[in-house]
Amino acid sequence: MKLIPWSCFDEIEAYTTCAYDENHQPMNMSYHGDDDALVLKNRQALAQLLNTDLNHMVATFQKHTTNFIEVTANDGGRGMLSREDAFDNYDAMYTRDPELWLWTFHADCCPVLLYCRDQKIVAAIHSGWKGTVGEIVGKVTKHLIENEHCDCQHIYAYIGPSIDQRNFEAKDDIIDLVKQMSFDTSSFYTKKEDGAYLLNSKGLIKKQLELLGVPQTNITISPYCTIENNDLFFSYRKEKTNHRNITLIKLKQPQK
């Protein structure tokens, strides 16, 4: 199993899973419309690779909302054996508890990870176009600043593998919502000759972070596009697949 790391600081670990193993077998991580036993096997293999178990991992049942939730070590294992016990209707999680892996599923949508270094908080966010226009990343970040006392100068962000602007065609229904966001978005879409637009979703997410005071130097944007790099990632737009990659993060146990 291949993992693409976000190398930020030694006190966290973060990766994106790749779509296929060395034998080109799909490493789907989502129970959505697939063989549940195979998905569970893939999840167990991932846990073993990361020297942990499924009781130290947690997932939500994502529904393109802007809802988020704080989770703790007591929530470990939720959403791992099935979707029935996952936190329903949440698209982001954060925790202060070490050794708890937070998952976010994606196949073109933007996975976003946050690390608040001063407060030792990690977050995993699913930002599809609905979450992006709803400013889920900004909402989570603002909550961490205002309610968890995170200093914006010490927040680090990773915008993971997702669809790039050159491949993200959107029509007026989406662009009309983009225009209603809380900041000037005109530089984040360009109109094509056929009347459709190319939308810079990663840029819209980055702007949400910057407007809350997160330094540009603290924001890492993955160079991978899930449409173009579909040898590495599942792409819903290209393949209409139910398969999903995950991007995940944990805070390490402090060294004694």
UniProtKB/TrEMBL annotation:
SUPFAM superfamilies: CNF1/YfiH-like putative cysteine hydrolases
Catalyzed reactions per annotation: adenosine + H2O + H(+) = inosine + NH4(+); adenosine + phosphate = alpha-D-ribose 1-phosphate + adenine; inosine + phosphate = alpha-D-ribose 1-phosphate + hypoxanthine; S-methyl-5'-thioadenosine + phosphate = 5-(methylsulfanyl)-alpha-D-ribose 1-phosphate + adenine
Molecular-function annotations in GO: copper ion binding; hydrolase activity; S-methyl-5-thioadenosine phosphorylase activity
Highest taxon above the source species: Bacteria
InterPro entries xref list: Cu_polyphenol_OxRdtase (IPR003730), Cu_polyphenol_OxRdtase_sf (IPR038371), Cytotoxic_necrot_fac-like_cat (IPR011324)
Pfam families registered for this protein in UniProt: Cu-oxidase_4 (PF02578)
Keywords: Hydrolase, Metal-binding, Transferase, Zinc
Stated family: Belongs to the purine nucleoside phosphorylase YfiH/LACC1 family.
Free-text function comment from the UniProt entry: Purine nucleoside enzyme that catalyzes the phosphorolysis of adenosine and inosine nucleosides, yielding D-ribose 1-phosphate and the respective free bases, adenine and hypoxanthine. Also catalyzes the phosphorolysis of S-methyl-5'-thioadenosine into adenine and S-methyl-5-thio-alpha-D-ribose 1-phosphate. Also has adenosine deaminase activity.
Descriptive protein name: Purine nucleoside phosphorylase
